[in-house]
Design brief:
The relative contact order is 0.04. The chain has 117 residues and is mainly alpha-helical. Among the domains are: 51-82, no CATH class; 84-117, no CATH class. It has helices at residues 2-13, 20-36, 52-59, 62-81, 90-95, 109-114. The radius of gyration is 36 Å and the shape is elongated. Helix content is 59%, strand content 0%.
Length: 117
């Protein structure tokens, strides 16, 4: 183990310079790549970034995502306005005057909201 530690320590302290011919080849390659890049003509405009509505549309997953959200929203409003028979009417829960309710067996909504702690 000591020999391996000595070799690793020597490798850490050894300085290796990059050969000049390698640096020359790297710079020549970089010049070749830059010369081949396509420049944007001055008369043409860059593509504009999408506006707020376009970004929102992209964020929702396009038109299929927006269609799904609209369908879910309309369904929620429909269930809220015309609840099924086995669910209590939300307006009865909010505006109830007595403590007796099928949904809240022992407490009225006002009593539940008024409890502390």
């Amino acid at each position: 183990m000591t020999r391996l530690d000595d070799m690793l320590a020597a490798a850490r302290h050894a300085r290796r310079d990059v050969p000049d011919d390698l640096v020359g080849r790297i710079l020549a390659d970089a010049d070749r790549i830059q010369a081949n890049r396509i420049a944007v003509p001055r008369g043409e405009e860059r593509q504009k970034e999408p506006g707020l509505w376009q970004q929102l549309l992209i964020g929702f997953g396009g038109w299929p995502g927006v269609g799904g959200m609209v369908a879910a929203g309309v369904t929620g409003v429909w269930i809220g306005v015309f609840p099924p028979e086995n669910l209590p009417d939300p307006s009865d829960l909010v505006f109830q005057t007595s403590g007796d309710s099928e949904f809240l067996n022992y407490y009225g909504l006002v009593d539940v909201l008024g409890e502390e702690g």
